[in-house]
Design brief:
single chain, alpha/beta, 7-stranded mixed beta sheet, 5-stranded parallel beta sheet, 30 strands, 32% helix, 23% strand, binds 5'-O-[(S)-ethoxy(hydroxy)phosphoryl]adenosine
């Protein structure tokens, strides 16, 4: 692992305080108020979190112990407390918000649907009963492989209601990637759809499920299929059932199961620098509290807000900030199936205008794509309902931030640049919009209760403005609990890069960062080999295994190179087996092969054939050098550990 450097970060001095109008109405109104909360939480984190848990959530039974940290890094929050996330998202709102829209859904072809809290509650109860009738019991795994339709959220909430941990797999993943996840999570029932709409075309989902199950390596017993796109799909008798048939007779009576605070809520897979994707495990009580309170304070939720997070439910952002966080707060959450496309580059702005969206949360890669599509699209829509903007997924470049602020936000909306991870469960470093002045490109300050720091590998804080590793010094309720079926990997990946000292464990996030003189965090991206393509994490190892599984490939090394829209694009360096010769056709075929192994998000932008790859004497591929080569910059840093320098020379001349 290389020490993060700060050379590439521009000095950014612009400061944008919230307007007086915004602060006045905000939940947290001033820097002083934030500071008081932060100090109070720091002085007594357990009191801070337990008071919030009491005030903000419904518990069937109070906990005995706020935090059990006797066996670090395995935390338990609200020990012996009984709670149900679906109850907190639905039942408790019925008295005051029965007729308030819970989910406002917009399909890509222009169809739309609104579910009030009362209606959503009914649908969730019905589907929970359907799951039970299919034999799903507390603790059984349910896979969800869906387009962005309300049934995706209904299925998640139904699982939470009966205590069946869900594992949502992004609909863009291939059959192979789906199968790996279904096998690892021991999924018994898969919920899917015939397909979904994306960029004016049908993305078939059911055939991918069929392919994933064909080998018989999973333990899936039943597949529930939502009819969304209407094309023919084959249904396997005794295994495949239509959602609408099952729902017809399902009862709307399904009390929420009191779950133990530490019962598993879901598994969500994410990429690391080595090995297969990790099953990140989140549990019930702590996650509920953390998703709830971060949504409320960071998006400054007010009763009449129409809140829209553009993430897919297949990612953690879709879990915490499309479904659970907003619904736990009784907010109106917008779900949109589509994506900006040639036939309507302004579709996002249509959704904002149509539904009078007031809080909008999206990704830097989307913002950069919008800039390219042209200001005429947002400018020709009425975006005056917006009052707050957010970003997540990768560092946002100041130019994109400024564009977002002026063209989308009309210079009146604060921007919350939120840093967090699948592992953290919710947002960790972020402005509170009524309290904290923003700087373009900085995620600003830690959320109250989060003891974030920038450290060296001994766990010492690094001086102001020096690069180091982003770390967290105290457990928090939303933290992941383990890697599913691999506690050792959990320990090694997150808690041992910085060795614990005197029993003090430090969470290692895998990102480089610095803090400026105001204490603001500037996140610089990954320090490991994880590539961030359009805000999605991909491990080099996954893509390399996919390439090597092709018969022509002997060895492969993939790295990220800077990309104007996607942030990073994948460049694959490939050596060939025996008699295979490099050709454009082979490059195309290899790209296709990766898509079929993992999914379109992993398609390499470029394949570079090589005779050999640069390695250390111990045989480790030096990706650092390949990154410089891919980016077309001078190779920097130490090359003395290279086994064979001529390999590098050759790659350099071939590339130019
Ligand atoms: C990156 C997404 C800079 C970071 C919620 C992190 C960011 C990884 C930001 C997690 C941000 C996310 N500024 N970098 N505001 N937000 N990242 O697990 O590298 O898909 O470690 O979770 O995205 O990605 P994940």
């Amino acid at each position: 692992m290389s020490q993060p450097t700060i050379e590439s970060i521009l000095q950014e001095d612009r400061l944008f305080p919230p307007t007086a109008e915004f602060s006045q109405l905000a939940r947290i109104k001033s820097l002083e108020e934030y500071q008081t909360l932060y100090d109070r939480a720091k002085a007594d984190p357990l009191k801070f979190w337990s008071e919030l848990a009491e005030q903000e959530l419904h518990w069937f039974q109070h906990w005995d112990t706020v935090l059990d940290w006797n066996n670090p890094p395995f935390a338990k929050w609200f020990v012996n407390g009984k709670i149900n996330l679906s109850y907190n998202c639905l039942d408790r709102h019925l008295e005051t918000r029965a007729n308030k829209p819970a989910i406002v859904w917009e399909g890509e072809p222009g169809d739309s649907k609104t579910l009030t809290y009362a209606e959503l509650h009914q649908e969730v109860c019905k589907f929970a009963n359907v799951l039970k009738s299919l034999g799903v019991k507390k603790g059984d795994g349910v896979g969800i492989y869906m387009p962005m339709v309300p049934e995706a959220a209904i299925a998640m909430l139904a699982c939470a209601r009966i205590g069946a941990p869900h594992s949502v797999v992004f609909g863009g993943f291939s059959a192979e990637a789906l199968r790996d996840r279904l096998v690892n999570a021991e999924v018994k029932v898969v919920v899917t759809a015939d397909g979904g709409w994306r960029k004016d075309a049908i993305v078939p989902l059911k055939p991918q499920v069929d392919k994933a199950l064909a080998e018989g390596t999973t333990v899936v017993e039943k597949v529930v299929v939502v009819k969304r796109t209407g094309q023919d799909v084959s249904m396997v008798s005794d295994r495949d059932l239509w959602w609408h048939d099952l729902e017809k007779d399902a009862s709307t009576d399904c009390p929420a199961e009191p779950m133990d605070s530490e019962d598993m809520l879901f598994i969500l897979y994410t990429s690391g620098s080595t090995g297969k994707p990790k099953g990140v495990v989140h549990t019930t009580g702590g996650y509920n509290l953390y998703a709830h309170i971060t949504t409320q304070w960071i998006f400054d939720l007010q009763e009449n807000d129409v809140y829209w997070c553009t993430a897919d439910v297949g990612w953690i952002t879709g879990h915490s900030y499309v479904v659970y966080g907003p619904l736990s707060n009784g907010a109106t959450t917008v779900m949109y199936e589509g994506a900006p496309r040639a036939s309507n580059p302004g579709c996002f702005w249509d959704v904002i205008e149509k539904h009078k969206v007031s809080v909008f949360y999206t990704a830097p890669t989307a913002i950069r794509a919008f800039i390219k599509m042209g200001d005429e699209h947002p400018n020709s829509r009425d975006l005056s309902s917006l009052r707050l903007l957010g970003t997540v997924g990768e560092p946002i470049n100041p130019e994109a931030w400024m564009w977002y602020k002026s063209v989308i936000g009309g210079d009146r909306c604060p921007i919350v640049d939120t840093w967090w991870q699948t592992e953290t469960g919710g947002i960790m470093i972020t402005p509170l919009p009524g309290a904290i002045a923003t700087k373009p490109g900085s995620a600003t300050l830690p959320f109250p209760g989060i003891l974030a720091d920038v450290v060296d590998l001994d766990g010492n804080s690094v001086p102001t403005n020096e690069g180091g590793y982003l770390a967290v010094r105290h457990p928090w309720p939303g933290m992941m609990r383990t890697v599913y079926k691999d506690p050792d990997r959990f320990r090694k990946t997150y808690w041992e890069h910085i060795p614990p000292k005197d029993g003090n464990y430090i969470y290692f996030a895998g990102d480089g960062a610095r803090r400026d003189a105001d204490g603001y965090f500037w996140v610089m991206g990954r320090v490991d080999d994880v590539i961030n393509v359009a805000g999605h994490r991909l491990g080099t190892m996954e893509v390399e295994s996919a390439l090597v599984s092709h018969p022509a490939v002997a060895e492969a090394a993939v790295v990220g190179k800077p990309d104007e829209i996607k942030g990073q694009d994948i460049v694959a360096f490939v050596t060939l087996e025996g008699t295979h010769q490099p050709s454009e056709d082979l490059a195309k075929e290899l790209k296709k092969h990766v898509v079929s192994e993992i999914g379109a998000i992993a398609r390499p932008g470029e394949i570079r054939f090589a005779d050999a790859l640069p390695k250390t004497r111990s045989g480790k591929i030096m990706r650092r050098l390949l990154r410089d080569l891919a980016a077309g910059v001078e190779i920097s840093g130490d090359t003395s550990t290279l086994e064979d320098r001529s390999v590098l020379e050759k790659l350099r001349t071939e590339g130019s």
